[in-house]
Amino acid sequence: MKIDASLIAQLHGEQPLVMHDHKPILFRRTRSINAESFQTIVKDIDTFIFDADGVLWLGDGVIQGSPQFIDYLISLDKQVIVLTNNATKSRAVYAKKLAKLGYNSKLNKNTLVNPAAVVADTLARAGLSGGKKKVYMIGSQGMRDEMDELDIDYFGYGPEPQDNSDGSAFMYDIELKEKPEDVGAVVVGYEKHFNYHKLMKAANYLRNPECMFVATNEDETCPGPKPGVIIPDAGPLVAAVKCAANRDPVTVGKPNTPAFDYIQRKWNIDPKRTIMIGDRTNTDVKFGRDHGLKTMLVLSGCHQTDDIVQNQIAGKHDMVPDFYASCLGALLPNERHY
Ligand SMILES: [Mg+2]
Question: Which residues make up the binding site for Mg(2+) (predicted)?
Fold first, then answer.
């Protein structure tokens, strides 16, 4: 869709009715925020929830000004939580990354949430810890670490040991390592060893209606160092299992409710005095809007003002943030140095 520059100009205007292709469109109010205007909203917020990639870091590098902004919030006694949709690493590994990038030590494993931790928590609360039932896992090291922490017995991760199928075009059978009645859940997240065998195993375990189907996140792609290369995320893998099993998973990552419930249980936040700050409109902003939080898009990662305008035109007001800013560093009071 071609975005008219005048639409961007009207993005944060007072006039909610905007003409596009000779048709009136109702724009949801969104405000551009800078260091000065941030001062007027910060006093109404107790808890800041940050996405990580595109907000605190980009790949392996820190986003300039973000550590100082976190320091500033901590100096104001604000509660700071990091909520990533990436389940490939555990919270402990992300905590080390934050420390390495120069973030305040108050950002640590206990202030981080990732879908792997929420999946493990979901399974433990469903009574799957302590080895009562096993979990068939399509997932990475981060998920294994979080499952270990809650004593959940899992199998199936990593490369398939051997392809025993014959030379015919179809596979008509597959050997299941565990009896389906002993498998309490199938979990699906990003796994680079995903293949047809794993798909077939997952779908066959899920034939048992008692077997839970839990997914980390449904992001289509993930950011990478080479802009020209598409990196499929967990979404396409979840979609394959969903399609083969003809069942819908409980997906815990943003924008879904399990991640919010996890945060609510752990920190008892007041949604009206909480802001979600992220770089994606369809995960971060939607998560905040769907759960009654204030929302801010930072333009230091994935989505830009064009994307906000597209959401306005499409009437997707749940993906239009209350505020947007170029990056976190742009919100720091000029006279203060942290
Ligand atoms: Mg992000």
Answer: 51, 53, 279
Report the alpha-carbon distance of residue 234 to residue 213 in Å, rounded: 14
Expressed in angstroms and rounded, the spacing between residue 307 Cα and the centre of ligand 1 is 14
| CATH 3.40.50.1000 location in the chain | 28-85+255-331, 116-160+174-251
The label of the residue with tokens 């060893």 reads 193
Catalytic-residue membership of 307? no
pTM equals 0.90
User: How many CB atoms sit inside 10 A of residue 64's CB?
Assistant: 11
CATH topology of domain 28-85+255-331: Rossmann fold (3.40.50)
Catalytic residue chosen out of the listed positions 4, 21, 46, 51: 51
Tens-place pLDDT, residues 201-238: 999 999 999 999 999 999 898 877 777 899 999 999 99
Q: Is 163 annotated as a binding residue?
A: no
51 labeled binding residue:
yes
pLDDT, tens digit, 9 for 90 and up, residues 85-116: 998 899 999 999 999 999 999 999 999 999 99
> What is the β-pairing status of strands 154-155 and 183-188?
unpaired
